Amino acid sequence: MAGMTGRAWIIGMALAALGGQAQEWTRFRGPNGSGVGQAAGLPAQWSRDAAVWEVRLPGPGHSSPVLWGPRVFINCATDSGQRLAVVALDATDGRTVWTRDFSAGGFTLHRNNTFASSTPAVDEHRLYVAWQHDGAITLTALTHGGEPVWDFAVGACEFQHGMGHSPVVHAGLVIFSNDQIGPGRIVALDAATGALRWEAPRKPGRGDYSTPCVVTSDGRDRLVFNTCEDRIAALDAGSGRIVWQSGAVLDKRSVSSPVVADGLLISSCGSGGGGNYVVALEAPSEPGGRPTEVWRIRQSAPYVPTSLARDDLLFLWADVGVVSCVETRSGTVLWRQRVGGNYFSSPVFADGKLYGVSTEGEIVALAAGRDFALLGRTALEENCHATPAVANGRLYVRTLTRLFCFGATPRGE
C-alpha cells in the first residue's frame, strides 16, 4: 500500500454491485449504504392511489424495507412494543407471505423512536434481524421462508434514545455494532452458523447509531465506522483489526452513516440542540496512519439523514428541510435550497432523481444535478422516519404503519 494516495485507497466500493432492474436492496440504504438504486422511468410524483400497491403493516415502526428477489422484509412493533414482528411480503403485490414474532421492548424510547427502528439485512440465503429485550440485544438469522437458523447473544445494552442499530452482511459475515452508553463491541458472525469470527471493543459513551460501509484497498476490505468515543475507524473485515483511526474528528453523536464519495469518506455528527457538521476525510496511504480532513461544512448540515454521493457531487439533506449540493472533492457548495418539511429519513437516488421523505410523509423529488430543480411532491398522509428502498425497478416507502410500492406504471394502467 506504500505510495498509494488516499483516493486510490477507497476505490472499488460496492457500487460496482449495482446491476439492472433486479438489483437487491440488502441493508439500510442499499448497496454499501450508498442509497443509490437502479430504476428506469420512475415519476417525480404520484397520486397516493397510483401506488402499485399499499398495505397496512401489523404494527408501527421506523425500520426500512430490505429486498431480495420477490420478497420484501420489514420490522414492526406489536403488542404496544412488547413484541417485534418480522414480516415478509410479496414484492409484486404486497401480500403477506409470513410473520414471525419475538419478545421485545423493555427499554426506554425517545419520542421520535419506535420499538422497531432497526433495519434487517438480507443475503441470498437468510434474513438477519437485531432485536432488544430486557436490556440485551440478540441477532437472529431466519431463512427466506421465516424458519429460524441461529441466535447470537450480542450482550447487554443501554441507549439514551432506544434501539436503532442495524446489521450488515459482507463476505459471509454478519456485522453488528453494539455502540452504547456502557462498554460495547462490534461482532462479526459466520452468516451460515452464527459462530463468532471476531469482535472489537467499543468504549462507553453516548452511543452512536451509524451503520458501517465497506472500502477496499490492495485487495482487502475494510469496514468504516462512525463513532464519537472511538473516532472514525477502519477495521479489517476479515479480522476486526484496526487498520487506521482518525483523531477527534467527531465531537458529537453520529446518527447518520459514513458514505464513500469520489475517493473521500463522508461522515457527520450533531445533536438535537444543533452543532451539526459534515466532514470529508482522505484515508491514509498506509496502515496505522491518520486520515486527512479535506473540508468541513457546518451550515445546514444534517444530523440524522445520511448524505448521498452521485458522480462528483454530494447531496446533504438536512433535518430541517434544507438541501445542499456540494462538489465532493473541493467542498464547494453549488446550491442550497429549502424544500420544506423536517427529515429523519435519508435520501435515495433513482432514475436521475433524489427522493427524500419528510417526517410528515411527503415524498420530495429533486434533480440530482448541479442546478437545483424541484421535480415533484407526493403526500402519503402519514408520518415517516424510514428510508426508502429501490429494487425491482420500484420505490418502496415505509410510513409509520404502511408500506407503499411505487413504480413506473401506475396501478390500473
Number of strands: 32
The largest beta-sheet arranges its strands as 1-32-31-30
The helical percent reads under 10%
At CATH level 2, the architecture is 7 Propeller
Cα-atom Rg, whole angstroms?
A: 20 Å
End-to-end Cα distance, whole Å, is 55 Å
CATH superfamily: YVTN repeat-like/Quinoprotein amine dehydrogenase
Low-confidence stretches: 1-21
Classified by CATH, the class is Mainly Beta
Question: What global shape is seen?
Answer: globular
Give me the number of helical elements.
1
What oligomeric state do the depicted chains represent? Answer: single chain
Reported by name, the CATH topology is: Methylamine Dehydrogenase, Chain H
Strand content: 35-45%
Structural class: mainly beta
Question: How many domains comprise the coordinates?
Answer: 1
User: What is the residue-mean pLDDT, rounded to a whole number?
Assistant: 88
How is the biggest beta sheet arranged?
4 strands, antiparallel
Structural description of this entry:
- The chain is mostly beta strands and 413 residues long.
- The protein has a single domain (6-13, 20-406), classed as 7 Propeller (Methylamine Dehydrogenase, Chain H).
- 1% of the residues lie in helices and 42% in strands.
- It contains one helix and 32 strands.
- A hairpin with a 4-residue loop joins strand 8 and strand 9.
- The longest helix is centred in the N-terminal third of the chain and has 4 residues, at 6-9.
- 52% of the residues are buried.
- Residues 1-21 have low confidence and may be disordered.
Annotation keywords:
single chain; mainly beta; Methylamine Dehydrogenase, Chain H; 4-stranded antiparallel beta sheet; 1 helix; 32 strands; disordered N terminus
